[in-house]
Amino acid sequence: MDVTPNPPDPLDQALNRWSATPEPSGNLTREVWRRIALNESPAHRREVTLLEQFTRPFFATVFVFGCAVIGLFLAEVRIARLQTEASSQLARSYVALINPLLHSPDPEGRK
Q: Measured between alpha carbons, how far is 14 from 10 in angstroms, rounded to an integer?
C-alpha cells in the first residue's frame, strides 16, 4: 500500500505562529454597536444600482418575465394593426366590387 503524505497546509503554519489572544478593550461592545448603528443609518446606506439588482435571482427572473410579456404585447398590437388594415382593405374591395362608380374618378375632375 503506497500512501503519500499530504503537503503541509499553509493554514497550519499560520495557526502555529499565532500568539495568545489579547484581551478585548472595555469599550469593544460599545464600538461594535456604534459601527452597526452607523452602517444602518439612512445617511450611510448606499443605493443599490440596477446592475447590482440583476445579481439577485428574483429580480432577474421578474425582469426576463416582464420583457417577455412586453414583447408578446407588442406582437399582439402589431398583429391587431395588420388585421385592421387587412379588414379595411377587404371592406374597400367589397364596396368597389358592389358599386364600382363610388370611388371612380370623375371624368370632369370633380369628386
A: 6
